[in-house]
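Try this one yourself first.
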């Protein structure tokens, strides 16, 4: 909330990515989350985006004045497989959030999310980047893309996996090439 001498905020308007190496809804954040919500409300000129594996904690973690959500908050629910998607997205679809997205990174198997795409603004898909990473199959990526196109939802293929199957061939990619290769696929869908 720091301001410059001229009275403007030190952090300029734009997007702030929260807790990308943690989780905003993690239990350990309960002690300081209310203070963070106050800052988020005060800085309505910023968009605050966070991913969560803990969407089932949503109702315990929102401020009293949340109502149908803050206009400047984007919540991304993370999924990895079908079991995980069905559990988390069945909760996520009914929550009062103005801006919702789904992140399937790492995507570990073919996943059908079609019935959960109503009110979703973006789906992001990607693989893991590590020598011990689990394999990402390009057919799974294309399947989710097709679901998004059918539902008219934005889709982004963020990165290949270190171990990546395309056309039944396994590729072992360098971490530095994962995003570049995904971009070269040229399959993002923007409405």
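Now uncover the answer:
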């Amino acid at each position: 909330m720091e301001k410059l001498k001229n009275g403007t905020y030190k952090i300029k308007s734009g997007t702030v990515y929260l807790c990308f190496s943690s989780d905003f809804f993690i239990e350990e954040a309960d002690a300081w989350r209310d203070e963070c919500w106050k800052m988020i409300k005060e800085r309505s000129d910023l968009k605050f985006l966070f991913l969560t594996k803990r969407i089932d904690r949503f109702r315990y973690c929102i401020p009293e004045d949340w109502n149908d959500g803050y206009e400047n908050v984007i919540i991304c629910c993370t999924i990895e497989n079908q079991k995980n998607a069905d559990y988390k997205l069945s909760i996520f679809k009914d929550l009062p959030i103005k801006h919702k997205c789904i992140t399937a990174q790492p995507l570990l198997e073919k996943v059908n999310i079609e019935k959960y795409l109503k009110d979703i603004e973006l789906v992001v898909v990607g693989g893991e980047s590590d020598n011990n990473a689990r394999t990402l199959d390009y057919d799974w990526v294309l399947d989710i893309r097709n679901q998004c196109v059918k539902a008219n939802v934005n889709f982004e293929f963020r990165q290949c996996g270190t171990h990546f199957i395309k056309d039944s061939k396994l590729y072992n990619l360098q971490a530095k090439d994962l995003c570049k290769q995904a971009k070269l696929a040229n399959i993002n869908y923007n409405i």
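Discussion: The mean pLDDT is 94. The radius of gyration is 18 Å.
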